């Protein structure tokens, strides 16, 4: 009897999913979007800039 009930419930859920899919409704849990990684440059070396050897380096 329990198997028959589970079979009927599964069939009803499948019909409901198919009916909702016609309207663009999805019952799937959407995961969090992947984070985007942007690489940035902190300092750009300049060809006209001369650096002293004893100067502190920040880049």
Structural features, described:
- With 59 residues, this protein is mainly alpha-helical.
- Helices cover 34% and strands 0% of the residues.
- It has 1 helix and no strands.
- It is rod-shaped, with a radius of gyration of 30 Å.
- The mean pLDDT is 76.
Order of helices and strands: H
Span between termini? 72 Å
Please mark out the parts with pLDDT under 50 across 5 or more consecutive residues, or reply none: none
Q: Give the helix level as a range of percent.
A: 25-40%
Strand residue percentage: under 5%
Number of continuous helical runs = 1
The biggest sheet, with number of strands, parallel, antiparallel or mixed sense and barrel status, is:
none
Could you tell me the mean pLDDT?
76
Structural class: mainly alpha
Number of strands: 0
* Rg computed from alpha carbons, rounded to a whole number of angstroms: 30 Å
**C-alpha geometry:** rod-shaped
């Amino acid at each position: 009897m329990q198997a028959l009930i589970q079979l009927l419930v599964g069939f009803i859920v499948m019909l409901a999913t198919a009916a909702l899919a016609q309207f663009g409704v999805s019952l799937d849990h959407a995961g969090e979007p992947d984070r985007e990684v942007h690489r940035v440059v902190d300092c750009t070396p300049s060809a006209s800039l001369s650096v002293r050897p004893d100067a502190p380096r920040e880049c």
